[in-house]
Amino acid sequence: MKKILLFVVACFTAVSVSASNVEKIQFANKGNFSLGLMVGIPPYSGNAVMPTVSIDGMWGLVDGLAKTKTFGENGAIDLGFYANLCFYDYGTNDDNDAGWSIPVAVRSGFHWEFVKKLDVYAGFQGGLAISEGWDGLDDDSDIYADGIFGMYVGAKWMFTNAFGVRIEYSGDWIGGENNMPPFAGGVTFNF
Q1: Over its length of 191 residues, how does the chain's per-residue pLDDT go in tens digits?
Q2: Are strands 163-170 and 98-115 parallel, antiparallel or unpaired?
Q3: What sign has the CA pseudo-torsion 36, 4, 115, 151?
Q4: Closest Cα to residue 82, out of 38, 120, 19?
Q5: Rounded to two decimals, what is the model's pTM?
């Protein structure tokens, strides 16, 4: 996983060396709203009965944080939300225990556009994962919440000012439980 992330960063760096056509940040501007829909690899993929389905949104708070020769006025900060849903089947012994998880988080990220139409971002997220049926020990329905705190990195390629595709990697650092999908991809809409 680290090798893939390093490869992606190396590709962005190689592209950015020749990217002199970026004059200012285009897609994470102050006041803009972006809505994303993604499908991802479930955190516990061996027990998942479906991929993770997520929705997220971000509002641009600040843009034009840095002015450089190569990238012009670039850099932006956003504030947003994230939620996903995944169902699991634990199948322990003779039981057919099933469960679900709904992580909900507040997130904030930093955006940088190396080339036109490419928005690369990274940030932190925190919230709760509401889950049911995680223990697999009895037939009772146990609903509880775990804390979420972690980071995410991603990239959006915008085909138009209003529509693009994206990929994202995220992690959850609290208590060794990862309630977030490690990799996800989908679409994004700018308003």
Answers
A1: 555 555 555 555 544 444 445 555 666 778 889 999 999 988 765 677 788 899 999 999 998 888 777 777 788 999 999 999 988 776 655 555 677 889 899 999 999 888 888 999 999 999 998 887 645 455 556 777 888 898 999 999 999 989 999 999 987 776 555 678 889 999 999 98
A2: unpaired
A3: positive
A4: 38
A5: 0.77
